[in-house]
Amino acid sequence: MRPHDVGFDEFYGYYPAQKEISQRVDARRFPGLVLNPDRLAAFEAVGPSDYLTHGFKGGRTEELQQIMSTEDMSKADQVLADFTVKRIEELAAGEKPFFIEHCIMKVHCDNFPHPDYVGKSEAMYPYKDSIHEVDAQVGEIMKALDDTGVLENTLVFFTSDNGPQMDGWPDAGYTPFRGAKGTTWEGGVRVPGIAYWKGMIAPGRTSDGLFDLMDLFGVSLKLAGISTDALPDGRYYDFIDQTSFLLTDGGRSSREAVYFWWGKELMACRMKEYKVHVKVVMAQAPHMHIDLATVHDVGLAPWFFNLYLDPKEEMTVGHRLDPWMATVLGKLKAHGATFKKYPAKDIGL
């Protein structure tokens, strides 16, 4: 399911995550693959594409540059940033509004900082150097919006899809919360969200209101002037229009709850400052939240936390200290019940 097959007019980038490309050419970390011709050939037969790809609505797809070394990989994000800047310049010269999703490959794993940023961080580790690089590239994109005169008419939203992948540490981020990517603890699902719109969003605002990434769909529809009545019937829409939350001084979130899944397992629900778990992912060794972790039912009672009192989810408050548990658990059950009317689709993943 390529981006230009499911709604985007154009795609320019790499399909897989960085590690899925670089492991073909990183003999230092993956000698058993790179230095073994038979294994490498078997991997290439089933592995994801390692080409920079340019795709267009309608299906036309071009493979451009192939990643042949870790040095090529180190320069990939700058190639993407340069393309985004170029497209901003072209689209801003037209009369139509435009939408761009710029996806960053770095600060995931494995990280190979651009030669210009090697050793630039205080830690001088690849992940930290890559943060410096990404910061500079975000600046280039923001400057392009400003230089082309569209910054005051553009909503910019900077975020992440999950918490740090601690299994790759120290080539990984870090979190003060429990868990990491691969779990539904706060360390796996709580991510930064930075909304910017010059002249429309007051600078310096902070909020602990709930915002789900799906809510960006609701915001986009609202700003584009498209009614939800125009959406296809027979589908369940999880997003909430959070435009007023973002744009109003002192705006409040319209979202009451967020639901957390692990694959096909409904794991937890966050409602206001409360969070209830009915299943949990338990790491069996430090930092190993994917490669050495297990999924467990919680046992006799749901694990119920007050995140204002205990953001690290270390001690349950349970029904003995807070009667809200039944309310939050009811929310979670109601969400799970929607799958009876709208069953999950098999999309081949």
Describe this entry's structure for a reader.
InterPro entries: Alkaline_phosphatase_core_sf, Sulfatase, Sulfatase_N. Among the domains are: 1-80 and 116-149, no CATH class; 260-341, 2-Layer Sandwich (Arylsulfatase, C-terminal domain). Helices cover 30% and strands 16% of the residues. It contains eleven helices and eleven strands. The protein has helices at 18-22, 31-34, 37-46, 70-74, 76-92, 126-147, 186-189, 215-224, 243-247, 318-321, 325-341; strands at residues 10-13, 51-56, 61-66, 156-159, 193-196, 257-262, 265-271, 274-277, 279-283, 293-297, 303-306. The strands form four sheets. A four-stranded antiparallel beta sheet has the order 6-7-8-11, covered by helices on one side. Strands 1-2-3 form a three-stranded antiparallel beta sheet, with helices on one face. Strands 4-5 form a two-stranded antiparallel ribbon. The longest helix has 22 residues, at 126-147. The chain starts with 9 loop residues before the first strand and ends in an 8-residue tail after the last helix.
